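> call design_seq(struct)
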């Protein structure tokens, strides 16, 4: 049967590429485009081949993917193939040498946003499901194909909905279609993300009174995060070869020209490794760990928690500045004399250049997300 499948796969190259081209021609940028057109292509293809499939929705009822399920005729484990059909943004379209949704083949390369990540994989997996469906009665267990449209947003809504669905068989393993022909990658780094909101007073840019804007404070935090002391890259022969990584991937704040921003947001993406948390605990020591836990407990975190990550963020931020309120000693996003801790909107001014309740300073620019508001 294996030889038959391999021969059939070779004969289907043009068909697989053809479906992928149709998917690429439907823009599906995560969080930007309507996913209905790209999902309509897939649903039409699946229905035309009588493949059992259904839509997946998140807790808010939003469509987040399609699930194809091929049941074998004999008991056995289920396996899952996963590919996203939403894509990254186009970026500066004037910098492209061809339209992002061209969906053509040039010099043996399939072109267009999502060709590699991962509409070609989605097409391949659909054809694999169709081939197995013809022989399902002879197979053990089953195959699930997850086509996720909420991956590039960072929400992973399709995967979450699939794993939370009581009607879906729990897979014994998941294989993800991703760019690269050189090797099969087993495992990967963990993921921890946060939206950090930095606050300040607002003001007029032409005023005689100087206000340190939230954007300036966020820039200091940005620099501190860039200099965060993460674990070094593992040596040759290490069981897990990839290093931890921290990236600030987006910054939002301010509008117009005449108003000083009172809030600025940073998106922080951290890729964790098996040794990341352990290293953070070793370096902190008992007193450092208590301080990290105390500061971390005062921060509200969006999507997850990781002790090593939270332990490293205060260490990086401490290099930025400290509060200038007498007796405080806590972190201050601005670092200017007399500024005090202005990172939180609930602080109230007690006079010119002074802030009351210095004992209630918090870790600046609290890590938090909309789910906790």
């Amino acid at each position: 049967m294996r030889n038959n499948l391999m021969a059939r796969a070779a004969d289907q190259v043009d068909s697989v590429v053809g479906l992928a081209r149709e998917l690429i021609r439907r823009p599906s940028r995560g969080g930007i485009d309507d996913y209905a057109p790209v999902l309509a292509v897939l649903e039409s293809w699946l229905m035309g081949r009588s493949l059992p499939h259904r839509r997946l929705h998140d807790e808010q009822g939003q469509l987040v993917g399609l699930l194809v399920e091929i049941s074998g005729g004999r008991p056995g484990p289920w396996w899952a193939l996963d590919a996203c059909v939403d894509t990254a943004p186009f970026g500066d379209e004037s910098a492209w040498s061809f339209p992002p949704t061209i969906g053509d083949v040039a010099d043996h390369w399939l072109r267009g946003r999502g060709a590699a990540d991962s509409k070609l994989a989605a097409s391949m997996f659909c054809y694999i499901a169709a081939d197995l469906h013809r022989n399902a009665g002879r197979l053990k267990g089953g195959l699930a194909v997850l086509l996720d449209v909420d991956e590039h947003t960072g929400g992973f809504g399709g995967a979450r909905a699939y794993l939370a669905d009581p009607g879906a068989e729990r897979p014994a393993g998941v294989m993800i279609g991703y760019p690269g022909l050189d090797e099969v990658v087993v495992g990967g780094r963990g993921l921890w993300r946060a939206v950090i909101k930095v606050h300040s007073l607002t003001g007029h840019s032409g005023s005689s009174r100087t206000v340190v804007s939230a954007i300036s404070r966020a820039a200091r935090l940005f620099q501190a995060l860039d200099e965060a002391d993460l674990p070094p890259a593992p040596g040759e022969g290490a069981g897990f070869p990839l290093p931890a990584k921290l990236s600030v991937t987006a910054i939002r704040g301010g509008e117009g020209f005449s108003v000083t921003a009172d809030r600025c947001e940073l998106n922080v993406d951290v890729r964790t490794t098996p040794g990341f948390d352990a290293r953070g605990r070793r370096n902190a020591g008992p007193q450092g760990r208590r301080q990290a836990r105390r500061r971390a407990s005062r921060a509200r975190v969006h999507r997850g928690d990781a002790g090593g990550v939270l332990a490293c963020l205060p260490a990086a931020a401490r290099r930025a500045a400290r509060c200038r309120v007498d007796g405080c000693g806590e972190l201050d996003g601005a670092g200017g004399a007399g500024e005090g801790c202005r990172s939180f909107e609930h602080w109230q001014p007690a006079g010119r250049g002074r802030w009351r309740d210095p004992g209630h300073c918090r870790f600046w620019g609290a890590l938090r997300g909309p789910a906790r508001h």
